[in-house]
Design a protein that fits this description.
By secondary structure, the chain is an alpha/beta fold. Helices cover 38% and strands 27% of the residues. The protein has a domain at 3-92 and 164-247: P-loop containing nucleotide triphosphate hydrolases (Rossmann fold), CATH 3.40.50. It starts with a strand and ends with a helix.
């Protein structure tokens, strides 16, 4: 099985001089093709800082992040945007869609930037939209559709170019329970049927229960790790909730 992501002794500090906050403290993690991993922890545990270092939004203070064997810390700034477009797919809590573009244009944006042919972009966008159940809103703008539809649009934008790694930061945080379930079922389907590799940061045990494996951070370190295995979703959710209670998390 191909190793997609390798995190080695990752450290992330904020501040300077004598006022330093250690957000990530020596985390090491291997992620393989087809993994579906949740990262949980109380506020301030370092989960978002870890994701930001993996996504190249932030730079580590120490350690390394290797994506498909390439040290992302050594990529020149002028090549970083292209690297993200080709290798990473992002799903954010607040959608981060462009209101001046239609749903169709938002989903296909990265393919347009990468100068794919118009017909190829059109066919790929329609295929993705049909799978996500948003074909009927392709011509609408983000402000004209529901929160669940906007997040599925964001999901479409993330997967349009078949990225090596999909990163989701609190993807259900702004959704109601029905829309949350639909989104996580979509990610679960992508993982199961397309072998998509997905890393999800969440505070919600139900969201995490869709994952195959969940890591718990405490004070910037990996505190515990659980695997779904043969458990059904409810059994796994209860196990996750027990550990969250032990951590004293939200």
């Amino acid at each position: 099985m191909e190793k997609i992501l390798e995190i080695i002794d990752l450290e992330k500090y904020y501040g300077s001089g004598t006022v330093l906050t250690k957000a990530v403290d020596g985390v090491s993690l291997d992620v393989y093709s087809g993994d579906f991993i949740g990262i949980m922890g109380a506020s301030g545990s370092g989960k978002t800082s870890l994701l930001n270092c993996v996504s190249t939004i932030d730079s580590p203070t120490g350690g390394k992040v290797l994506l498909k064997g390439e040290d992302i810390g050594r990529i020149e700034n002028k090549k970083l945007a292209e690297f993200r477009r080709k290798n990473l797919g992002f799903i954010f809590q607040e959608f981060n869609l462009l209101d001046t573009l239609t749903v169709e244009e938002n989903i296909g944006l990265s393919m347009v930037i990468n100068r794919n042919e118009k017909e190829k972009v059109h066919d790929r966008v329609n295929s993705v939209a049909e799978r996500l159940g948003i074909s009927d809103v392709l011509k609408k703008f983000p402000y004209e559709i529901s929160g669940g539809q906007r997040q599925r649009c964001a999901c479409g934008r993330a997967i349009i170019h078949n990225p090596s790694l999909i990163l989701a930061d609190e993807p259900t945080g702004a959704l109601d329970s029905h829309s949350s379930r639909k989104l996580m079922e979509t990610l679960e389907d992508l993982n199961r049927n397309d072998s998509s590799t997905i890393l999800v940061v969440t505070h919600d045990a139900k969201t995490a229960s869709y994952c195959k494996r969940v890591l718990f951070l405490k004070d910037g370190e990996i505190f515990n790790e659980v695997f779904r295995g043969d458990k059904n979703q409810m059994e796994f959710q209860l196990e996750i909730m027990d550990i969250v209670a032990l951590l004293g998390g939200d």
